[in-house]
Write a structure and sequence with these properties.
By secondary structure, this protein is an alpha/beta fold. Helix content is about 45%, strand content about 15%. It is built from 9 helices and 8 strands. An 8-stranded parallel beta sheet has the order 7-6-5-4-3-2-1-8. Strand 5 (about 140-145), helix 6 and strand 6 form a beta-alpha-beta unit. Helix 3 runs parallel beside helix 4 (about 105-110). The longest helix is centred in the N-terminal third of the chain and has 21 residues, at about 10-30. The chain is globular. The model has no long low-confidence stretch (mean pLDDT about 95).
């Protein structure tokens, strides 16, 4: 009998990434999209530093964008140096909630923050970016707005009704660059509801791009979809899927 808790190997990680990209390719083709429009972001929550490094190497060796997403600030801080020293082209994303007292740590370890969900947080982030420019010599931090598109009380994110005004606020801040929007799909077996939770964010993105407002034209990314619902997210326009379990196995 195999040991379900045995450490995952570099070969396993590479093989699983290839399988996920097969799913991405199939879903994109089904949706009439170009598969290369969708990137895989590896959600490395609870993974060891060695595993994070091997995951970055696997993406690099396969010729894919190298995106690692961290849910916890302390894990991002710990992983930044070992990963970036081995694979300098890695882009570290923060995909978990960030408390204001951890903004500086996040800026020192992540290139992109996907979880901006209030003007207060955006203002604090904007104030501190230029004091922590190790990862951003231009003094600009790329951000996504997190939208709670399903309305579930257990989730972070601004409401869809607030999101456009927040996008305009963020786009006007001199030290932030709005790159797109992030959401977690509705937690339900009702596929119609899951589709709806993603389509709301796609409509928001499209509204921003077509608005003509300064700073909104670059907000093209949609970080939507995880292991269980990536096909639905891709059908609804996702450009980045955040996957952990399908690559690393169940969290321990």
């Amino acid at each position: 009998m195999s040991d379900s808790h045995a450490p995952i190997t570099a070969a396993d990680i590479r093989a699983n990434i290839e399988k996920v990209y097969e799913r991405i390719h199939a879903a994109a083709t089904q949706a009439g999209r170009t598969p290369t429009e969708i990137a895989l972001e590896l959600a490395v929550k609870t993974q060891t530093l060695d595993t994070c490094v091997e995951a970055a190497k696997a993406l690099a060796n396969l010729g894919h964008p190298i995106l690692l997403g961290h849910n916890k600030v302390q894990e991002g801080v710990a992983a930044a140096e070992p990963v970036l020293s081995e694979v300098p082209s890695t882009r570290m994303h923060m995909i978990g909630h960030v408390q204001t007292n951890k903004i500086n740590q996040t800026l020192r370890s992540c290139h992109v923050i996907e979880t901006v969900d209030s003007s207060r947080f955006a203002d604090r982030l904007n104030q501190r970016v230029r004091s922590d420019d190790v990862l951003r010599p231009d003094g600009i931090c790329d951000v996504f707005i997190q939208v709670n598109s399903s309305g579930e009380q257990t989730k972070f994110g601004c409401s869809p009704a607030e999101a456009y005004d927040l996008a305009c606020h963020v786009a006007a801040l001199p030290n932030l660059r709005l790159r797109g929007f992030m959401t977690i799909g509705a937690h339900t077996d009702n596929e119609t509801a899951v589709h709806r939770s993603f389509s709301k964010v796609r409509a928001l993105r499209d509204r921003c791009i077509s608005s003509g407002e300064k700073g909104l034209s670059e907000a093209v990314e949609l970080s939507m979809g995880m292991t269980g619902d990536m096909e639905i997210a891709i059908a609804e326009g996702s450009t980045i899927v955040r996957v952990g379990t399908a690559v690393f196995g169940p969290r321990r």
